[in-house]
Design a protein that fits this description.
The chain has four helices and nine strands, in the order αβαββαβββββαβ. By secondary structure, the protein is an alpha+beta fold. The strands form three sheets. The protein has a five-stranded mixed beta sheet with strand order 1-2-3-9-6. α2 links the parallel β1 and β2. The radius of gyration is 17 Å and the shape is globular.
Length: about 150
């Protein structure tokens, strides 16, 4: 199958994979176990979380979340700086054939990562396999693109 598909809006998650892979391994789903996640670091997790079509059905405005995971907070923050620069530099240039018109950083939703919970006879105990405050930085963007 040819990518991008002519006459269709781009696959925004694939666009971000193509854009960020030179920076670090980029995925749309996280590794299944905490051990696999830790061994994959640094890692970029991309998700399209919504979007709207303009009134004339010419431009699609996608809202996306990008999460930078690092072995330390500093590494995650440095990765976030590179992600921001790549995304804000993407409009008017082609990324694997996809042309976006506009990109801007928007307010990210609070990270929805919850550490696993271990059930014990006395109640619930949190077992943090990954400290979300120290190992991840979440950034959100709005990306606008026309049919390709």
């Amino acid at each position: 199958m040819t990518y991008p598909v002519a006459g269709e809006f781009p696959d925004f998650e694939q666009f971000m994979i193509d854009l960020f892979t030179p920076v670090a391994t980029t995925v749309t789903t996280l590794p299944a176990t905490s051990e696999a996640l830790q061994s994959a670091l640094p890692l970029i997790w991309v998700r399209k979380i919504g979007g709207t079509l303009d009134i004339n059905a010419i431009t699609y405005k996608a809202k996306v979340n990008v999460v930078a995971f690092g072995t330390t907070r500093g590494q995650a923050q440095q990765l976030a700086v590179q992600i921001r620069a790549a995304m804000l530099g993407a409009p008017a240039s082609r990324v694997n054939g996809v042309l976006v018109d506009y990109a801007e950083e928007v307010v990210a939703d609070e990270p929805k990562f919850h550490p696993p919970i271990l059930r014990r006879s006395r109640g619930l105990t949190e077992v943090p396999d990954l400290d979300p405050l120290n190992q991840m930085v979440e950034i959100a963007f709005s990306i606008e693109a026309r049919r390709q």
